[in-house]
Amino acid sequence: MKAFEKNIRKVEPYVPGEQPGRRVIKLNTNENPYPPAPGVQKAMEQISPDKLRMYPDPTASVLVDSLAEYYGVNKDQVFVGVGSDDVLSMCFLTFFNSEKPILFPDITYSFYKVWADLYRIPYICPKLMDDFRIRKEDYYQENGGVIFPNPNAPTGIYEGLEFVEDIIAHNQDVIVIVDEAYIDFAGKSALELIDKYENLIVVQTFSKSRSMAGMRIGYAISNPTLIKYLNDAKYSFNSYTMNQAALVCGAEAVKDKVYFEETVQKIVETRAWSVEQFKELGFKCLDSQANFIFVMHPEYDAKEMFEALKKEDIYVRFWGSERIEQYMRVTVGTREEMEALFAFLRRYIKGE
Amino acid sequence: MKAFEKNIRKVEPYVPGEQPGRRVIKLNTNENPYPPAPGVQKAMEQISPDKLRMYPDPTASVLVDSLAEYYGVNKDQVFVGVGSDDVLSMCFLTFFNSEKPILFPDITYSFYKVWADLYRIPYICPKLMDDFRIRKEDYYQENGGVIFPNPNAPTGIYEGLEFVEDIIAHNQDVIVIVDEAYIDFAGKSALELIDKYENLIVVQTFSKSRSMAGMRIGYAISNPTLIKYLNDAKYSFNSYTMNQAALVCGAEAVKDKVYFEETVQKIVETRAWSVEQFKELGFKCLDSQANFIFVMHPEYDAKEMFEALKKEDIYVRFWGSERIEQYMRVTVGTREEMEALFAFLRRYIKGE
């Protein structure tokens, strides 16, 4: 090892879901199968070259304003970032500076652990119950902060507002982050609680329900005090994270409520239909309220099935990690994509 | 103070140059006065909605490949990020983990100090000499890493390759980062040295010479070993930082070498002409090799002049900080913009 390598930070890099170059049935990264709102393309085409040569507005006001209007909050209650990964990472850095461990479920979004390690934040991961639900009493213990997704990933299980409020209410001396990447496919958002609890931050994303994973936009909504702390931290890193295209396309996407609701509705319907199909084939499905379904088959090995699907150019997600070795996570695609999936699974399972 | 505020990270936020909403003569943030290469707008218009709904390629290969080809290096020698701020911040995080202080000049890009504080990296800032040049012997002391811009900012002073190599050669046990945001307006790049020194990283940006501050693209070029460390750190933060628009527009910009060289040439010519104008008015100009000029007038107070200019809707940059209280940094705009600046300064100074 060279002398200069001694002080280099070594990390375990996260392995994202595969992005195959060729056209496949891609049900592995929870993308929306429908394109963004029609206005988005137009907004992109109208970005003038003059806008490209200049720094973007560091306050991202066009995007912040549109989100504030949509959610009926003030502009100083919205923070935007490069996908919810950027927003969440900034939240970890800003809010989790206690000596006490933060809490998040053992089975959840895998980046929480990565950011905690990166920022040297101690953590404890209470185990999900056997039915993969969060036990809220696990979050009553002393801690340095709490984060959990609702719906949780990769389970898809959604907990109602009372449950969420109970965790927030038991943790008023620390920051509680509710990661709502999939909330639009589920139920009530914890946004209803931000006026009631000063320690609450709700994080959402454009990557799922708004069909814009490619533009990298996430946001946090909270009270002005916490949002200011986040902005201060962000400005000290990199003042201009949101490029011109993200700003104008994002703002445009938020405006088209009708298109948004139609798209979400189609996915929710396809999800219900897909769950039926899975069950008919003997799969066990968790009760997903997200745009994916977490499934296992008591008689077929998940890894073998995952690989058989891949050979057919049908990509789903498989981790093989503890407690979920027999599960696959399947994104809800278009009805046609799901039909192709089930046609294969019928052959695989029933020999049809 | 609320209990939950105790563990919130408090930072001194960086104050970026103003971005006024209305049309002004904007010579305060070193943007390029010319639009990006014509192909860029077309590339933007051709991004399909399907690309927007999907996650971007986490390896950013279309952009990485175009840079590798342009600079005649391999693909595994290029790292890209959200502006050079993102790239530099990731370099600090990845490479500066020694107990020993890193070194950078006292007068330089103000973010170095901010990132060092953020990541709790100790640092020493050797003083520039009285003529605002770096004294290379200051960088012979024991340290945990070295970073300096060439040309330096906000002085604009460029040091030749021998000088740069001397600093690198004296620091082969640590990582040396040469921040070349303005190199295309100056002279030889330290890129020539990356095969010779394993501890060297060269960072550049699309925000200045490539007229794309609005798209947020920066990059580092080094050997495959150091680039892999950077990518590992980046993937552990946020796998998808570069959105689709940045990827395709960036790749397109790199292809148009003729347009790039013409634009740079125009700015270099306007710079030479502007220096003459400043001198005629009695200003002292440092020998700038960047797209800005660092000036002071022995008889006129910089702060008053800065404010008088602002009243005329001519924005330049002024810090008022130690050793540079009497200096203003003026971005080289178009010839027309500079003529408007000098017309005002002639009135201000000569009462014309």
UniProtKB/TrEMBL annotation, chains A, B:
Keywords: Amino-acid biosynthesis, Aminotransferase, Histidine biosynthesis, Pyridoxal phosphate, Transferase. Pathway: Amino-acid biosynthesis; L-histidine biosynthesis; L-histidine from 5-phospho-alpha-D-ribose 1-diphosphate: step 7/9. One of its GO terms (molecular function) is histidinol-phosphate transaminase activity. InterPro entries: Aminotrans_II_pyridoxalP_BS, Aminotransferase_I/II_large, HisP_aminotrans, PyrdxlP-dep_Trfase, PyrdxlP-dep_Trfase_major, PyrdxlP-dep_Trfase_small. Residues 23-342 form the Aminotransferase class I/classII large domain. It comes from the Bacteria. It catalyses: L-histidinol phosphate + 2-oxoglutarate = 3-(imidazol-4-yl)-2-oxopropyl phosphate + L-glutamate. Its EC number is 2.6.1.9. The modification N6-(pyridoxal phosphate)lysine is found at residue 208. CDD domains: AAT_like (cd00609). Its cofactor is pyridoxal 5'-phosphate. Homodimer. Belongs to the class-II pyridoxal-phosphate-dependent aminotransferase family. Histidinol-phosphate aminotransferase subfamily. This is Histidinol-phosphate aminotransferase. It comes from Dorea ammoniilytica.
